Amino acid sequence: MNSNEETSLYRPFLAHFNTERQTSALYFNEGSPIPEGHYYMRGGICFPVPVDGSISGYAVMCGRNLVSNVIYVFEEREFFTIDHVIDGEKGGIKLKGLSTWFNDCWTRYYADTFYFHQDHETCQKYRLQVVRSPMIANKPHFVEIKWSDDNQAMHTVFEKDILQQLKYSKDGKVYQQLQEYNADQDGVYPALHSLKCALSGYDRYPARIMN
């Protein structure tokens, strides 16, 4: 089992949460390719699934700019467990879980809602671990997003990518698995699945901003 990976596109130095609009105002350093402004923050998650003789889960946190409607994949995180795995002999962290990443999403972006699309047993197992985790200060909200055709869900990803309505890091597994998918559409791609969940959620539950 490889070490889990975390990738960020470009992090804001400051964020404010608008309770009435339920959006996050993000402020970036000068020279940032990402514009300051109000963002509708939503994530997608793929709970761990079997991949190449091991397991792998993936989570993304995205923000939709309310002016341009461009969706930025701000954070990506591969994971195998919810809480950290502690080394019984040395006492240190043997494997980092997803728990503290949830905390980071809240403190950096005021973001705590994730869309998912998986079998009931897997989702129930990991969602229960989230509820019971003492390491998660602000418990995330999980919203099931349904689709009947995986090809249609992938169409959503490619459509936004082609129209330049989707921005992501080329150092992350979202980019990597997009390339792999083009070569083998029958593979298992947790990063892509988490992105499909997030983008399908944006389409199904768009921001309703009341001025």
Can you describe this structure?
- 30% of the residues lie in helices and 30% in strands.
- The termini are far apart.
- Strand 4 and strand 5 form a beta hairpin.
- Helix 3 crosses helix 5.
- The strands form 2 sheets. Strands 1, 2, 3, 4, 5, 6, 9, 10 and 11 form a 9-stranded mixed sheet that branches.
- The chain is α/β, with parallel strands linked by helices.
- It has one domain: Nucleotidyltransferase, domain 5, CATH 3.30.420.
| Mean pLDDT score | 93
Query: Largest sheet at a glance?
Result: 9 strands, mixed
Global morphology: globular
| CATH topology value | Nucleotidyltransferase, domain 5
Radius of gyration: 17 Å
Low-confidence stretches at least 5 residues in length (pLDDT < 50)?
none
Category by helix and strand content:
alpha/beta
H and E order: EEEEEEEEHEHEHEHH
**Name of the CATH architecture:** 2-Layer Sandwich
State which percent range the strand residues make up. Answer: 25-35%
Strand segment count: 11
Q: Which key phrases capture this entry?
A:
Nucleotidyltransferase, domain 5; alpha/beta; 211 residues; 30% strand
TL;DR?
The protein is α/β, with parallel strands linked by helices.
Set out the fold topology.
Blueprint (H helix, E strand, L loop, with lengths): L5 E3 L5 E5 L4 E5 L9 E15 L2 E12 L5 E9 L5 E2 L6 E3 L3 H11 L3 E4 L3 H13 L8 E4 L5 H13 L3 E2 L5 H11 L6 H15 L7
Helix pairs in contact: 3-5
